[in-house]
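quick one, 170 residues, struct below
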Amino acid sequence: MVALMKEYGIVVSMRDGVAKITGISDVRADELVIFKRSGVSGIVLNLENNFVGVAVFATDDKVREGDTVLRTNKILQLNVSEKLLGRVVDALGHVIDSSEPLTEGQAQLIDVKAPGIVARESVKEPLQTGIMAIDSMIPIGRGQRELIIGDRQTGKTAIAVDAIINQRDA
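---
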Protein backbone atom coordinates (compact mmCIF):
# COMPACT_ATOMS: atom_id res chain seq x y z
CA MET A 1 0.00 0.00 0.00
CA VAL A 2 1.38 3.42 -0.97
CA ALA A 3 1.02 6.23 1.57
CA LEU A 4 -0.19 9.52 0.13
CA MET A 5 2.04 12.51 0.83
CA LYS A 6 0.20 15.52 2.20
CA GLU A 7 0.52 18.27 -0.38
CA TYR A 8 -1.13 21.12 1.53
CA GLY A 9 -1.29 22.65 4.98
CA ILE A 10 -3.07 25.39 6.90
CA VAL A 11 -1.61 28.60 8.36
CA VAL A 12 -2.03 28.52 12.14
CA SER A 13 -0.36 31.85 12.88
CA MET A 14 1.46 34.63 11.08
CA ARG A 15 3.89 36.93 12.87
CA ASP A 16 6.97 38.95 11.86
CA GLY A 17 7.18 37.44 8.36
CA VAL A 18 7.06 33.85 9.61
CA ALA A 19 4.01 31.63 9.12
CA LYS A 20 3.44 28.65 11.39
CA ILE A 21 1.82 25.89 9.33
CA THR A 22 0.27 22.56 10.24
CA GLY A 23 -0.56 19.66 7.94
CA ILE A 24 2.58 19.44 5.80
CA SER A 25 4.75 17.38 8.10
CA ASP A 26 6.58 15.66 5.22
CA VAL A 27 7.93 18.94 3.83
CA ARG A 28 11.71 19.39 3.55
CA ALA A 29 13.88 22.24 4.80
CA ASP A 30 14.48 24.98 2.16
CA GLU A 31 11.46 23.75 0.17
CA LEU A 32 9.44 26.37 -1.65
CA VAL A 33 5.76 26.61 -0.70
CA ILE A 34 2.94 28.71 -2.20
CA PHE A 35 0.14 30.39 -0.26
CA LYS A 36 -2.92 29.56 -2.35
CA ARG A 37 -5.11 32.63 -1.69
CA SER A 38 -2.47 35.31 -2.36
CA GLY A 39 -0.01 33.42 -4.59
CA VAL A 40 2.84 34.51 -2.32
CA SER A 41 5.86 32.21 -1.96
CA GLY A 42 7.71 31.15 1.15
CA ILE A 43 10.63 28.95 2.18
CA VAL A 44 10.48 26.25 4.85
CA LEU A 45 13.01 27.00 7.57
CA ASN A 46 11.88 25.42 10.83
CA LEU A 47 10.74 21.80 11.08
CA GLU A 48 8.94 20.84 14.29
CA ASN A 49 6.81 17.83 15.25
CA ASN A 50 3.40 19.42 14.67
CA PHE A 51 4.29 22.65 12.88
CA VAL A 52 6.48 24.01 10.10
CA GLY A 53 7.95 27.51 10.15
CA VAL A 54 7.92 29.29 6.79
CA ALA A 55 9.61 32.60 5.97
CA VAL A 56 7.14 34.48 3.79
CA PHE A 57 8.43 36.48 0.80
CA ALA A 58 5.86 39.27 1.24
CA THR A 59 4.39 41.57 3.85
CA ASP A 60 2.38 40.12 6.73
CA ASP A 61 -0.93 41.38 5.33
CA LYS A 62 -0.72 38.99 2.33
CA VAL A 63 -1.00 35.86 4.50
CA ARG A 64 -3.71 35.22 7.11
CA GLU A 65 -4.54 32.50 9.59
CA GLY A 66 -6.52 29.73 7.89
CA ASP A 67 -4.89 30.21 4.46
CA THR A 68 -4.04 27.07 2.51
CA VAL A 69 -0.37 26.39 1.77
CA LEU A 70 0.66 24.19 -1.16
CA ARG A 71 3.91 22.23 -1.38
CA THR A 72 5.98 22.51 -4.54
CA ASN A 73 8.32 19.58 -3.78
CA LYS A 74 11.16 21.82 -5.01
CA ILE A 75 14.15 22.97 -3.00
CA LEU A 76 14.66 26.70 -3.63
CA GLN A 77 17.21 27.31 -6.41
CA LEU A 78 18.32 30.43 -8.24
CA ASN A 79 19.79 30.83 -11.71
CA VAL A 80 23.38 32.00 -11.35
CA SER A 81 25.52 33.48 -14.11
CA GLU A 82 27.89 36.38 -14.81
CA LYS A 83 24.86 38.45 -15.89
CA LEU A 84 23.61 38.39 -12.28
CA LEU A 85 26.52 40.60 -11.16
CA GLY A 86 25.43 44.18 -10.53
CA ARG A 87 21.71 43.40 -10.83
CA VAL A 88 19.09 43.98 -8.14
CA VAL A 89 17.03 40.87 -7.46
CA ASP A 90 14.49 39.79 -4.85
CA ALA A 91 14.74 36.74 -2.60
CA LEU A 92 13.55 34.46 -5.41
CA GLY A 93 16.00 35.81 -7.99
CA HIS A 94 13.45 37.91 -9.90
CA VAL A 95 14.92 41.10 -11.36
CA ILE A 96 13.57 44.24 -9.70
CA ASP A 97 15.89 46.86 -11.20
CA SER A 98 13.47 47.45 -14.13
CA SER A 99 15.90 46.01 -16.63
CA GLU A 100 15.70 42.93 -18.79
CA PRO A 101 14.93 39.69 -16.91
CA LEU A 102 17.59 37.06 -16.31
CA THR A 103 16.85 34.11 -18.58
CA GLU A 104 20.08 32.17 -18.55
CA GLY A 105 22.26 30.66 -15.89
CA GLN A 106 22.91 27.49 -14.01
CA ALA A 107 20.40 26.52 -11.29
CA GLN A 108 22.12 26.47 -7.91
CA LEU A 109 20.81 25.74 -4.42
CA ILE A 110 20.55 28.81 -2.20
CA ASP A 111 22.10 27.11 0.81
CA VAL A 112 25.59 25.97 -0.18
CA LYS A 113 28.67 25.52 1.94
CA ALA A 114 31.34 28.17 1.40
CA PRO A 115 34.66 26.93 -0.01
CA GLY A 116 37.35 26.10 2.53
CA ILE A 117 40.29 28.37 3.26
CA VAL A 118 42.67 26.37 1.05
CA ALA A 119 40.34 26.58 -1.98
CA ARG A 120 40.01 30.37 -1.77
CA GLU A 121 42.25 32.79 -3.58
CA SER A 122 44.81 34.41 -1.30
CA VAL A 123 44.71 38.11 -0.50
CA LYS A 124 47.22 39.82 -2.82
CA GLU A 125 45.99 43.36 -3.39
CA PRO A 126 46.25 45.96 -0.62
CA LEU A 127 43.23 47.91 0.56
CA GLN A 128 43.83 51.59 1.32
CA THR A 129 41.35 53.12 3.73
CA GLY A 130 42.37 56.68 2.90
CA ILE A 131 43.26 57.33 6.55
CA MET A 132 47.04 57.65 6.81
CA ALA A 133 47.27 56.48 10.44
CA ILE A 134 45.44 53.24 9.66
CA ASP A 135 47.12 52.59 6.29
CA SER A 136 50.61 53.04 7.76
CA MET A 137 50.10 50.84 10.84
CA ILE A 138 47.64 48.11 9.80
CA PRO A 139 48.20 46.09 6.62
CA ILE A 140 44.78 45.26 5.20
CA GLY A 141 44.29 43.22 2.03
CA ARG A 142 41.37 43.57 -0.36
CA GLY A 143 39.10 40.60 0.28
CA GLN A 144 40.29 40.23 3.86
CA ARG A 145 37.74 40.42 6.66
CA GLU A 146 38.36 43.07 9.27
CA LEU A 147 36.44 43.94 12.40
CA ILE A 148 36.28 47.51 13.67
CA ILE A 149 35.86 47.42 17.45
CA GLY A 150 35.31 50.42 19.68
CA ASP A 151 33.01 52.34 21.94
CA ARG A 152 29.94 54.18 20.73
CA GLN A 153 30.36 57.48 18.93
CA THR A 154 34.09 56.99 18.24
CA GLY A 155 33.95 57.08 14.43
CA LYS A 156 33.84 53.41 13.48
CA THR A 157 31.22 53.98 10.78
CA ALA A 158 33.11 57.00 9.45
CA ILE A 159 36.23 54.85 9.01
CA ALA A 160 34.26 52.17 7.17
CA VAL A 161 32.54 54.70 4.90
CA ASP A 162 35.84 56.45 4.13
CA ALA A 163 37.39 53.08 3.24
CA ILE A 164 34.49 52.27 0.89
CA ILE A 165 34.66 55.67 -0.81
CA ASN A 166 38.43 55.39 -1.17
CA GLN A 167 38.02 52.14 -3.14
CA ARG A 168 36.27 54.05 -5.92
CA ASP A 169 39.48 55.95 -6.63
CA ALA A 170 41.70 52.85 -6.43
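The chain has a mean pLDDT of 85.
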